[in-house]
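Work Package 4 report. The design task specified in the project plan requires that, given a folded chain encoded as structure tokens, an amino acid be chosen for each position. We show below one input record used in the internal validation round.
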């Protein structure tokens, strides 16, 4: 649901936002939308917010906060500001980014970048002093809101990494993971509805919203890459950008391996994100044209012929043998269409895990502090609502 001031209209799951009902050509002018945030550990929840924001206008400007600002108001970010800037630039609904955007959104910022209004999710973002960062634009009627994407949060992803269980991508009940979903980041007064963990449920409609829907055109070079693409990060973005540059008219297809396959060759508690979550993360990247969900590990004749693949690429990461010990890229190598690419970025999901583990105490403290502030806001809102009800009851009597 999209809230427009005090009014609410349905989001794209039930119908297009009202501001998208007119084609750009029929509008008197271009509608510019502003979004801002930390965009740390960018996941499909962030992408879905940006998708909805773009649907409310014609041109999307995204402000990304610096490391210093995030550390001041929330705690240490997982990714550096340079990494976060690049991740948002690679999101296909984003037209422009503003580096080092102020943590508190003001009318001055909206006017500086010629934006009609600011859009954010229905979770509350607070300053270090506990104030709503969107208070000014809300009061002046230049704020729009969308429902937060259920089933994902940075809190949950961090928890999955720290627990080292496989329950987030298997059907096996695990008391440790259940304890995480019940308690991770929980404050002394209970759960905030914005930080809690809930299960993500994939739908065909959600995939359609994220997919480009474009078929390969005559003259396109069809390039195939495969992997886990877990915790979709800047290392993946740099690789896919390098892949995209291999042809004048590239059509990049990403084959995503099923969770059990990833766990076979990666081990530990990988993948951190399940196949449904990874699908949306990859589809949100501007360098990707199509995704094969549950692609076979071996890139064989049937796959190459079905998609009419011209080129198969792989990064500098290790290629694990198939279950029978054979090379999964034997067929494209035989055809002379296999290419190893160096994106000059050696960041892996393992490296991100290490960042999290090394700063575990800081991240846990950050999550608990964030939840405590959110609970205080909820208590204040409840108190205000109770006061208004009491006043109304006295007036009626």
């Amino acid at each position: 649901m999209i809230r427009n001031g005090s009014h609410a209209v349905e989001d794209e799951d039930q119908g297009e936002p009202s501001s998208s009902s007119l084609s750009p050509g029929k509008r008197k002018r271009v509608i510019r939308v502003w979004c801002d945030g930390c965009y740390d550990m960018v996941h499909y929840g962030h992408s879905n917010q940006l998708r909805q924001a773009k649907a409310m206008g014609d041109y999307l400007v995204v402000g990304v906060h610096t490391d210093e600002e995030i550390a001041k108001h929330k705690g240490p970010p997982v990714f550096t500001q340079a990494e976060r800037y690049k991740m948002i630039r690679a999101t296909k609904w984003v037209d422009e980014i503003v580096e080092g955007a102020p943590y508190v959104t003001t009318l001055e910022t909206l006017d500086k970048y010629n934006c009609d209004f600011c859009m954010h999710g229905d979770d509350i973002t607070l300053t270090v002093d506990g104030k709503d960062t969107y208070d000014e634009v809300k009061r002046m009627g230049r704020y729009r809101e969308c429902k937060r994407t259920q089933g994902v949060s940075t809190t949950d992803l961090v928890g999955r990494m720290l627990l080292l269980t496989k329950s987030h991508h298997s059907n096996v009940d695990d008391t440790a993971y259940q304890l995480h979903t019940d308690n991770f980041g929980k404050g002394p007064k209970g759960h905030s509805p914005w930080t809690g963990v809930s299960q993500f449920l994939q739908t065909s409609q959600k995939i359609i919203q994220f997919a480009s829907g474009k078929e390969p055109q005559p003259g396109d070079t069809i390039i195939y890459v495969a992997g886990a693409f877990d915790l979709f990060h800047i290392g993946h973005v740099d690789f896919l950008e390098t892949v995209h540059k291999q042809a004048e008219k590239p059509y990049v297809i990403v084959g995503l391996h099923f969770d059990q396959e990833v766990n076979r060759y990666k081990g530990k508690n990988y993948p951190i994100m399940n196949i449904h979550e990874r699908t949306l993360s990859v589809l949100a990247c501007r360098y990707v044209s199509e995704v094969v969900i549950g692609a076979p590990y071996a890139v064989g004749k049937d796959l190459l012929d079905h998609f009419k693949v011209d080129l198969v690429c792989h990064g500098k990461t290790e290629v694990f043998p198939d279950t029978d010990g054979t090379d999964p890229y034997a067929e494209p190598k035989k055809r002379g269409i296999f290419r190893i690419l160096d994106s000059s970025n050696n960041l892996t999901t393992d490296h991100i895990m290490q960042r999290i583990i090394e700063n575990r105490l800081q991240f846990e403290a950050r999550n608990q502090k964030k939840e405590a502030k959110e609970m205080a806001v909820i208590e204040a809102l409840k108190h205000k609502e109770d006061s208004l009800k009491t006043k109304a009851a006295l007036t009626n009597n």
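The longest strand covers residues 221-227. Validation will be extended to a larger panel in the next phase.
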